Amino acid sequence: MIKKKLNINGVRWKLIVEPLASLAALLQSRLKISKNDKCGIGDCEDCFVIINGEVALACTTFLRELSNGAIITTKEGMAEPGSLQAVQLAWVVHGSPGCSRCSGKLIGEIASLLEINPFPTRRDMESWCNNKFFTCCDSEGILKKRIDAIVDAARVVRGEIGIDELAGMISTEKKIIDLMEIMPRKTITESAPGEIVPELGIRLPPGTLNLALVRSGVFNAKLMSIKVNEAWTVPGVYRIITSYDVQGSNILCLPAVSSQEKRFEFNYPVLCREEIKNKYEVIAVVCADSQQNALKAARKIRAKYKFFDKGDTSGLIAGGNKLEPACHPEAYNTGFAHLNNRGKVVIYSKYSLPDHYRSVIARAIGLEEEHLYLVNGNGSKGVPQDFTPIMETVLGLALLSTGRPVFLKCSNYAGEKSGSVTVQWSLQ
Length: 428
Hints:
- Helix content is about 25%, strand content about 25%.
- It has about 425 residues and is α+β, with helices and mostly antiparallel strands.
- The protein folds into 3 domains: about 1-75, Ubiquitin-like (UB roll), CATH 3.10.20; about 85-165, DNA polymerase, domain 1 (Orthogonal Bundle); about 180-425, Aldehyde Oxidoreductase, domain 3 (Alpha-Beta Complex), CATH 3.90.1170.
- Strands 8, 10, 14, 16, 17, 18, 19 and 20 form an 8-stranded mixed sheet that branches.
- Helix 2 packs across helix 5 and helix 10 crosses helix 11 (about 390-400).
- The two termini are about 45 Å apart.
């Protein structure tokens, strides 16, 4: 056992601790400051903290590594109004993109550094943004948005402008979209102008985002990296979602039932992170103002793979799309998702989904089951035998990631009309 003096969220602690214990164990089990992290091995990075102005993962930081007097700030310690609120709001004002895996830690680190240095130079700001946690979204255009956000957040921290004045910089268009997000379901389904979707029996409300799926295009391989920088150059792109944005289990798991129903147990990833089993698996989702822009951006995404064996890959053309057959319209799955006036997630499916699918989808995207509703569409009376609710789960994930209504029409094929493309890929 060793003695440690730590400053945690502004409170000084004198502790006797086990040197090989993790900081996460101290914060969660002993001091009851932070909530339990999700993985405990540094994979989800949900337990990030600021130690002496630098981001670290609590579950992979041993107590013996901490110096006496170390200043530690957790997410709970940054929850009070101040620099964190200013940076979060400035992020929205300037439309700075990025997945929750990277942006959450970056915003927290910048907020902490602004309290130490409220007069950052451009070199300081570039250094803050180019940190080791960044895995994507690091183009020059995105860096400029982040620096502009830091500049405005620093003005709030210095007291040059108020938080209300910063909030007033949000565009009128953004405010209208915010109002659309809380429209009651009756307005969306009956009187809102927009494209009619016969399979679902609804009209799409203004501000609805169209989704395009990025499929792996390979099988029996490991996804080594995925680059989305070029996709952000396409006008109208609102968000690019990867597996690191999924707050839930990211797994669709439905137990087997009686053999008479001819159902089989499945355990299927929503968005693949590493292991690729078949070429139709989804590795990313593009959200844009139109399906044309979503597909255009999806074609610019790049991936690198490492194959598990030396199997024949000659039939796999890097970036090639399989031509879709002349399918009947019923071969396409159609769905829509929005927040109702009570803040519940409502997903419209073309099929009549069994009620137990609700818990499966909610668990996969990290949502409480009572906050999710499934609405059956008019396109089919029953669920196909080999059906898995991937599309419906993607819709729920996209809604949670963007906060805006989302629409998807897609088949399992990659092509111009199918709503999905095969990712441009290369070997590691």
